[in-house]
Amino acid sequence: MIVPSMNLDELKKEIDKDHAILFRKSVFVGHQLEREYRLKSNERKKISYDYFSKHKNNWVYFFDITKNNTVCSFMIYYYSDRGLNAFLKLDDNTSFVFFSAHFFTRYNERLKLNYTSPKQMIHYFISNNTGFIFQKIDMIDKTRYKFFCKFKDGIALGTMDLETKIYKMNTFITQDMLFGDQQDLNDNLNKQLDKYLQDSKILV
After folding, report:
1. What does the pLDDT look like over 161-175, one tens digit per residue?
2. This prediction's pTM
């Protein structure tokens, strides 16, 4: 079970205990949903589920289903004295994204969501953001750098640790908060994100 006092390596090990089981479950559920809905070419179904693992961790997993493709995403979340925190594992199966409590506080405020429930927040976030484009900005030291991340709802600013392979989402800004060189960077990231979504058959 995740506890707030765990360090990053301990958190990753705890996530990996559940992830393989959750992946197998999602494959089974995904096939069931495809048979149940039998979508036409112009239809789309979005569904998210809660999952409480045998290791006593809270997960949300999300399906984005069209006639020709099914995409599934997972997020594990927990609450600390600073607020809501969450992790997701990237497709390379070795890198993680950590969403800090400060990120979710700003996300909630700046999108004017007014959520008070962690579960509501995670369901909303995972249902709206299925693709992430990371852009390296500046090195902090030999093992860490700052990044700029574009996804559907806006921009995350954070730090990447090359040793732990964790992208830490430190804060959230909306599109209209960008200025100067950041706007040029955003335009480039928008193009990359659009290409990713198109190539992956993920609809915005």
Report:
1. 999 999 999 999 998
2. 0.88
